[in-house]
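Section 3.1: Structural characterization of target chains.
Under the original work plan, the team committed to producing a structural model for every single-chain target entering the pipeline before any wet-lab resources were allocated. The record below documents one such target. The sequence was received from the expression subgroup and is listed exactly as submitted; it comprises 556 residues.
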Amino acid sequence: MNIKDFLQHVQDAYAALTELSIIMLDLQHQPVTKVSNITELAELVLFSPDKPFPPSCFPNDYTEWQRPMVVQTGYWGVKAIVAPVLVEQKVEYWIWAGAFIEEETKPMIKEQCFRFPDSQIWLQAIEQTKEQTISSVEKKLNDIEKMATICGEFISNNRQKQHYEQYFYLLDTAVDRAQQFSLHMDDFLHMFQKIDSDIDFSLYIKRQNREWVVAHAVGEKAEQLWNQQIKTAFPPLSNSLFHSHNVVCVENAALDPRFAFFVKNGIKPSTVVIYPILHNDEVEGWIVIGSQTKRSLPKEAVQIGAILMKYWQLHSKYELAYIKMDRHFMRLSMLIEIGRAMNVVKDTDEIIRMMTDFVAELAYGDFAFTVLADHKRKVKVHCGAISEQQVTEYYEDVCQRYFSTEKRLLENIPKLRETKFGTVMEISFSVHEHVHGVMAVHLKDIEAAKEAEVYVAALIGIGTMVMKQNTYQTSKQELNIDMLSERLTTREMDVLNLLVQGCSNREIADRLFISIHTVKNHITNIFQKIGVNDRSQLIALVYQLNNRKVINEEHH
């Protein structure tokens, strides 16, 4: 049901209840409804040719008129009730309910009728009109007031419904655009302007290079504010508001010296609403909307702005998570490819160079630095934006801190160090008991240090595993049977002897009184220490070493 039909139905019902003729008018005194229950006296008042309707009973200044009143109709003694219809606390319509005469006034009114044109018609209408007592007039006042309230609430609710439909449309649009990954800050600011027709501008203020600047602006006059710096006097940047994280509404902002930034640029905001953008409970920016004509925005509009703001924060987190996930997949793919490449390379120096080249990309740093040291030499490799002089200084510092004692190398705990060329993550590692190393990689973002640590450690783990494998494979032919007992534990030697005899895992477990799981662990350790991949290789190597020992003994 539309508004006019509803108002007509309500008016018809109250006309029957009060026995008055009722009509509703807008602020320009134009009829909104048709007259209900028109009586002969009301018809004379409303449609008399000598006094066009509306009569002077309607005020010119209606801002203070909040309740129904009994007024003169312009015809002596003939009265009516006029009531304002308040919509959102403002008068938007008038109810005229009449015409009636009060008790004990009919004789005097009849005397005056002779002055009216068509006096006989007036006399007849007055005669037929029932006089109203004080109590009945009061009741009619109360009934008309109820009618005005019902009409005002219906109109308010209908407008709120329209606003909410508009708000839901905005939210749906935001969701659709976000799902298509096409929701950008400019689009978002345009959505803020659609919250209310009186919003003239919207801004996005963010921190850049330790300053607050207007990063985006929407509005005819606001666009000239792009890239302009905001002074700390601006309300959101003051200490009290900066840490409150609350939405701030300011009326008469043009008269507030803190908003001189706007006035200086030709914008004189009557009201301003400021929304904080939070990340990890810290303010990273502000959305500022304002109107140059409206003293304040509806409460619902401000709340919808807060919902949009929260949705933007949620969307930003989702985008960040998506980017991180994509970054994880890229890093994992990179690790797999690096591992395959290093498996092909047999030279330790080349493996260190590959690790150094790729670690800066894994950690998104500007440079990386690696030192590998054994008892004979120290290999240093670097890449990225670091000078030879800085490399030399850093190399000497690393050697002093890590290679002067082996105890510090055994810690194997990532450390963050502040250097004159930025924050660096250092991780020590060990290839075997005689070969140790330190990898250092620059970090652009300290907050991402934990994430970078995982991939740097994984790269180091892959690199050291390949270097160990190459070391064992290289030295395999130089092994002799006596060196096996030096590399293997007593229990591993027991397992090795039974393996060479052709015993199964179950038989080994039974003979040594250990579990099959423990046997498998011992076999895996033996394979790694000797540098073989399966039992056949192991048995062949042991027989080969035994033969070599026999030959050497015969030779001597």
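The chain has 18 helices and 15 strands.
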